[in-house]
């Protein structure tokens, strides 16, 4: 099986146009046609239906596509492993993370990693948790870094907790709660709470925690972006529970204030997730080792 032909097949499935695929691959249109024809002859079936000047991926092509991607990924992994074992400084580090982790926790670690392994290419996917899990299932990334509130299939994946993240109540400077030493949980009901939309793992975790304190939140605003929630608090749209790590700079500058609720300590774990059937590359193992450097 020729890896180049498989890559050409994947590109053609994305463009469904021989000219566009050829342009993307920096080759001629006849070359693309020949590679696809040869691949179809090897497989003994047609992968695309040609209708006039248009092509469509048929059922055989749809069935073959995920296997083609897996073969390409496996080839890249084996190549990276061979290079990294030989020199310790080659290959690719590919992983996914949720927004909070990717924006606030990972950058300093990546700087450390790049200093030690400057020739290793880095590909980080910052996506929603369901999308990331699909990428891990498809072998598009080596591992994920997620909140431990995300539901994981234990039969397929191995999880390892490495950090405890505290969610703290923050308010804008000048807010009525800003000057109080601490507050009682029920006082939250008097203010607008900014949080993620329904079905967000963070939102569900906060709701369960607040219900445990008999707190009913009826006045709230749903915002899908963590950064937008933080900016909403800064601009006095409401108050919010945000990772201490994510608001450290704003707390230092004084534009946000941390309000203590003695009866309410909210922590969530951060974990890395790997496939049980996958051998991690040396680069991935080196980066995972750096995760332990994050101090709570």
TrEMBL record:
Keywords: DNA-binding, Transcription, Transcription regulation. Residues 1-58 form the HTH lysR-type domain. GO terms for molecular function: DNA-binding transcription factor activity; transcription cis-regulatory region binding. InterPro entries: LysR_HTH_N, LysR_subst-bd, WH-like_DNA-bd_sf, WH_DNA-bd_sf. Pfam families: HTH_1, LysR_substrate. Coiled coil: none annotated. Belongs to the LysR transcriptional regulatory family. This is HTH-type transcriptional activator CmpR. The lineage of its organism: Bacteria, Pseudomonadati, Pseudomonadota, Gammaproteobacteria, Enterobacterales.
């Amino acid at each position: 099986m020729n890896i180049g032909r498989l890559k050409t097949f994947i590109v053609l499935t994305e463009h469904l146009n021989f000219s566009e695929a050829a342009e993307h691959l920096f080759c001629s249109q006849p070359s693309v046609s020949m590679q696809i024809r040869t691949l179809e002859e090897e497989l003994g079936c047609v992968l695309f239906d040609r209708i006039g000047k248009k092509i469509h991926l048929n059922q055989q092509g749809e069935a073959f596509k995920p296997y083609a991607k897996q073969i390409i990924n496996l080839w890249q992994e084996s190549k990276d492993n061979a290079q990294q074992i030989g020199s310790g400084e080659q290959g690719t580090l590919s992983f996914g993370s949720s927004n909070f982790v990717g924006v606030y926790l990972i950058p300093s670690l990546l700087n450390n990693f790049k200093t030690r392994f400057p020739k290793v290419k880095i590909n980080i996917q910052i996506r929603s948790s369901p999308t990331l899990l699909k990428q891990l299932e498809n072998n598009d990334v080596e591992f994920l870094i997620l909140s431990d509130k995300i539901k994981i299939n234990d039969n397929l994946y191995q999880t390892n907790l490495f950090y405890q993240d505290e969610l703290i109540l923050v308010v804008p400077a000048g807010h009525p709660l800003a000057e109080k030493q601490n507050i009682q949980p029920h006082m939250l009901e008097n203010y607008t709470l900014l949080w993620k939309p329904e079905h967000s793992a963070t939102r569900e975790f906060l709701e369960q925690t607040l219900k445990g304190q008999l707190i009913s939140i009826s006045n709230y605003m749903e915002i899908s972006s963590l950064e937008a929630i933080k900016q909403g608090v800064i601009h006095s749209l409401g108050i919010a529970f945000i990772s201490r790590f994510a608001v450290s700079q704003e707390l230092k500058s004084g534009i946000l204030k941390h309000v203590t609720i003695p009866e309410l300590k909210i922590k969530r774990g951060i974990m890395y997730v790997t496939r049980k059937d996958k051998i991690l590359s040396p680069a991935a193992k080196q980066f995972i080792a750096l995760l332990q450097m994050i101090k709570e």
